[in-house]
Amino acid sequence: MDIGEFSAMAESAVAAREVIIAFVHCQITYSGRAEAFLGRGDRVLLIKADSTVIIHQPEGSNPINYMRPGSAVTFEKVDQHVMMHVMNSGDKSFLDVEIFRVYDVASRKLEDGQKQDLAGSERDMSDHIRDNPTLIGNDFHPISREEQTDVGFIDVFGHDKQGHFVVVECKRITASLMAVDQLRRYVERVKQIKGTQVVTGVLAAPSITPNARDMLESYGFRYAHVQPPMRLERWHRDQKKIFEY
Amino acid sequence: MDIGEFSAMAESAVAAREVIIAFVHCQITYSGRAEAFLGRGDRVLLIKADSTVIIHQPEGSNPINYMRPGSAVTFEKVDQHVMMHVMNSGDKSFLDVEIFRVYDVASRKLEDGQKQDLAGSERDMSDHIRDNPTLIGNDFHPISREEQTDVGFIDVFGHDKQGHFVVVECKRITASLMAVDQLRRYVERVKQIKGTQVVTGVLAAPSITPNARDMLESYGFRYAHVQPPMRLERWHRDQKKIFEY
DNA sequence: CGTGCCAGGTGCCAT
DNA sequence: ATGGCACTTGGCACG
User: For the whole model, what pTM was predicted?
Assistant: First the structure.
């Protein structure tokens, strides 16, 4: 496609809040939270209705460059190529895309009011524990979930038979040192607030790294093996079918 | 575009390791690390050379759905629409995209061997501190950078005039409670390894949250105001130019 | 709006 | 492969 034609088309598409997709040969400079340069190559350019700009290389799951929603997108014709300037005053960043060739391009007004419905988050897991307290122990009685403290919120907060407080930190994946840090911070804070030295810390996760387990136990805390709900539901259901072939 | 034509074209493009971009009207089901459903709407579909699949809604910076590189992508014609099945055996996940309409589509072999050159990372910051130790204090002498311990690696490790060890944790953005947790973990570990109780902890960052500062000081640690290198370099340079107009 | 933290986090590098 | 962690992390929820 002619490069001047692209410039005019893209400009009006951006103004009309259309989405633009294109295969381009380009070179990229970014300046903002970091400074970056990417030499000439073929990439996928995506400009969204809210002026989000995303650039993908032919491989890999992450964009190589992007600009947040609400950016100012302008096009400048320079000789036989187009310079696309993207500026975001919110985070004070620039993206300059020097476009040498446009292989394919399309722009269109897209309609989509749908929100994704997602299950299997850590919140579901803490709900699950609250409804099934024996997952933590036979002597665990939940009081609240997502309890707010000034050092973060406690996933599940409760007590045991003797009335000693119990703090539970949930991880939907393997618990790491950071998870132990968090638990420790909450336990310390609860001790301060409640004025007691007897607070139980429990780390609930499907697994835990050896170092995290060591550190956990050195603090006198406990690990509870808990599976996050809905994990790999479909895989287990369909695998059977696949093996039947 | 005819939906059957799309199916055949996409199938051969995937086989040829071409990249595909399209505007489609679709409905999406995901199952893997979580379970998700997204009703009918207009979206951008991107299939990369390595069988990465990415789907974007018309707004927002993140993809609404994606599948990692190396997925198996197949197309199935069902009545007047196409069902795209994506399966990744690595992370045991499924993505089903039911495509009702294809507004625009393009596929192409893209050539790009470039790697991005990026400056301003935390690693650059720890390099900067090692080369300019007075940023931490007049009495700081770096020994090593990225020092490995079993509880993580220490950004900059050094000592003071009296030979007391100093542990520096860097953050390129505002330091939070988590950063203090990390620093504390490293200081504790160094005390154990070196068999001393006198270890200085320093948190180096451009800013720090009030809670983090409180916790930092309660541990007897210190904050060092350090700007990450190259931050907003371009903005400062060009802002002047902008204001000249 | 800042603070804290989860995320289908992802990617990088270390052991 | 697993572990520890940075990331132009992004996004949400709460004070």
Answer: 0.94
